[in-house]
Prior knowledge:
By secondary structure, the protein is an alpha+beta fold. The protein contains three helices and six strands. A hairpin with a 2-residue loop joins strand 4 and strand 5. The protein starts with a helix and ends in a 12-residue tail after the last strand.
Amino acid sequence: xxxxxxxxxxxxxxxxxxxxxxxxxxxxxxxxxxxxxxxxxxxxxxxxxxxxxxxxxxxxxxxxxxxxxxxxxxxxxxxxxxxxxxxxxxxxxxxxxxxx
Length: 100
């Protein structure tokens, strides 16, 4: 696949409290990414390995339902999206924040 295709699959890293707790764990490094809704685990694994030059051990995906939100009297709904939890081989690491 082309590199542009990989950027379509991996939308952005999720830098949340839960994802930072995953990366600080000793046994395995773990990362969370927002991914394309119709992407498969194999595509996600291939994209992470190609973009970051690491070896992926496992990929777990979660579909997060969009929340109902209200602004004044208007009621709307946020989009449903997909996130992937990535576990890397021992010793591999992804630098998500520049300068760290």
